[in-house]
Amino acid sequence: MITRPVKRLPVENGISGWEAISQRSFPVRCLEGRVNADWLIIGAGFAGLSAARRLLQLHPDDKIVVLEASEVGKGTSGRNSGYMIDVPHNLSSSEYSSGGADSTRREMAQNRYAIEFARRAAEAYGMSRETFDPAGKINAAATARGMKLNVSFGQSLKAAGEKHTFLDAAEMREITGSNYYLGGLYTPGAVLIQPADYVRQFAAGLSHDIDVFERSPVTSLRRDNGTWMALTTLGSVCAPKVILGVNGHVEDFGHFGGRLMHIFAYASMTAPFPADDFGHKASGRDRWALLPADAMGATVRKITSGNQSRIVIRTRYTYDTTLTLSQSRLSKMAQAHRRSMDARFPNLEGIPFEHSWAGRLCLSLNHVPAFGEIDEGLFSACCENGLGTVKSTLAGMMAADLATGFTSRELKEYMNHRGPTRLPPEPFAWLGINSVIRLQELRAGREG
Ligand SMILES: Cc1cc2nc3c(=O)[nH]c(=O)nc-3n(C[C@H](O)[C@H](O)[C@H](O)COP(=O)(O)OP(=O)(O)OC[C@H]3O[C@@H](n4cnc5c(N)ncnc54)[C@H](O)[C@@H]3O)c2cc1C
């Protein structure tokens, strides 16, 4: 018998604006007492929920249980910028694309496989255009360096036979209402989600067929006579097979130690402002989505619902070994967001931020997931490398395929990589990774 206590449980730093403006349509159920199941999934983010849907497709009569430490939509899956990106999105390469044409094509095929799965789920669970919008995205450039990065990214896309359109400064001004940008590169395949609504509606749709228990953190995992038992505060689940969709917390379950980088990303959402003449003059069209041409710059999105608009901005990264951030760190990041906002939208200076928050990404040095059967009957769908809306969706699907023995071309290709490589020991990792992040952010300059 092996019992593994779970070292640390997730922490939410700040309330995400997406969650604050999202509505729950189903009650919170906590696990109480003992439950037996065919499958246990731990974590109800993109990875866990996608694994559950895929399992349901493959084994519709099996009993599937999902355990979530917090509530669906409060974790990182409900607090991101909501870009489901089909083209390469490697954060450690300043123009996103790091491989040759073949690997670019392979990566796009995988991303699109995951986005198609998400699209079908969105359709099945009745998501609106405000929750799941296949509108594409623009890589916006505010500097000569950003323009060069866009050109270089455009060349990678061209070599892979991919559609893309360059926009000039006037077109960027017409879309965003801002004079800040020199140009942009539009790719049509990205889907923009309201992330908290997406995961909540996904979970609500699943909950007709499976049990999703929230506020039910797994505090230990034990294997006894071929069965796994997960203990929560008030109950337990026994199942022969378990899928971990806990992203960086997989380390707290005792796996991939010293191989995963935990990077905080920070975002703020403005208070609503009128989507009328004022909103259009200050910030252009009702909806648009900009990624920075330099991966270390600012992601900026405008959303409009009814006659109210908001801007959501994400800038700055830090590597931290702790889970809880100080209020002063969050305030400092919100100030950085304010500077970026005011530089782009001077007419919105009077519109305050209503919410500022942070969330944890999980990256590996060699940009691979922490994936596979890591113990008998225990599967990992973790380490999303910064694009979890897509990569964690894919990891969840692939973990379900692997765990059920469903062999597909996609799974074979997905498994064709080495595991995450080892990081330098602390405090060298902390020093090294934060120095690289900061230097790259400084180099990004006005893109941030
Ligand atoms: C500000 C910000 C902006 C971002 N923008 C984007 C973007 O535009 N596009 C994109 O693709 N990605 C973006 N990301 C990253 C994206 O949010 C993550 O990649 C994604 O959430 C990972 O999904 P996941 O399901 O793997 O993990 P998570 O979303 O972290 O879900 C894991 C779940 O496991 C649960 N859990 C952990 N431990 C336990 C336990 N012991 N018991 C039970 N449950 C447990 C957690 O509570 C959590 O709900 C952004 C992130 C941030 C913070």
Task: Explain what this protein looks like in three dimensions.
It is a single chain. With 448 residues, the protein is α+β, with helices and mostly antiparallel strands. Helix content is 32%, strand content 26%. It is built from eleven helices and 23 strands. It has helices at 17-20, 46-58, 101-124, 144-159, 169-176, 195-206, 277-283, 327-344, 388-404, 409-414, 428-444, and strands at residues 2-5, 33-36, 39-42, 64-67, 83-84, 132-133, 137-141, 165-168, 183-187, 191-193, 211-213, 220-224, 227-231, 235-239, 241-244, 261-270, 273-274, 288-292, 299-305, 308-319, 353-363, 370-375, 378-382. The strands form four sheets. Strands 7, 8, 9, 16, 17, 18, 19, 20 and 21 form a nine-stranded mixed β-sheet that branches. It has a six-stranded mixed β-sheet with strand order 11-4-3-15-23-22, with helices on one face. A hairpin with a 2-residue loop joins β19 (299-305) and β20 (308-319). The radius of gyration is 21 Å and the shape is globular. The mean pLDDT is 95. Flavin-adenine dinucleotide binds at residues 6, 9-10, 42-48, 67-70, 75-77, 79-83, 217-218, 245-247, 249, 265, 267, 314, 359, 361, 384, 387-390, 392.
